[in-house]
Write a structure and sequence with these properties.
Helices cover about 30% and strands about 35% of the residues. The chain is an alpha+beta fold. It folds into 2 domains: about 40 residues; about 70 residues, Copper binding periplasmic protein CusF (OB fold (Dihydrolipoamide Acetyltransferase, E2P), Beta Barrel), CATH 2.40.50.320. A 5-stranded mixed barrel has the order 1-2-3-5-4. Strand 4 and strand 5 form a beta hairpin. Helix 1 packs antiparallel against helix 2. It binds copper (II) ion. The site of copper (II) ion (CU) has 4 residues, from strand 3.
């Protein structure tokens, strides 16, 4: 799942760079607008739960690239805004999640399990 997302992102970036400004300006503009809209609307990142620490209120997630924060694929612990979510997670769960910086800490705002 995460590899597919990375591949799609790479394709968008590649397509944006492949068209030089000039002769095909119209095509370039629409292509870039489309890529930008996709990036802006889709802030979900695919990942897998590695560890749940209710005491700390964190979940450690192995995740794909997160363009929003210039994050490469990695595994790291995240704070969770809604601690009740931690009760529904276990290591190995495939998820998608959305992160924002809250008080200087990367915090999971939304999280969904994938089947
Ligand atoms: Cu990360």
């Amino acid at each position: 799942m995460s590899r597919v997302a990375i591949l799609i992102t790479a394709l968008f970036l590649g397509a944006g760079l492949a068209f030089p400004a000039g002769a095909d300006a119209g095509k370039t503009r629409s292509g870039k607008a489309e890529a930008a809209a996709t990036a802006a609307n889709d802030t979900w990142t695919a990942g897998e739960v590695l560890r749940v620490e209710k005491g700390k209120g964190t979940v450690t997630i192995k995740h794909g690239a997160m363009p929003k924060f210039d994050m490469p694929p990695m595994a790291m612990p995240y704070q969770v805004k809604d601690k009740a979510v931690l009760d529904q997670l276990k290591p190995g769960d495939k998820i998608r999640f959305d992160v924002d910086s809250v008080g200087g800490q990367f915090t999971v705002l939304r999280l969904e399990k994938l089947k």
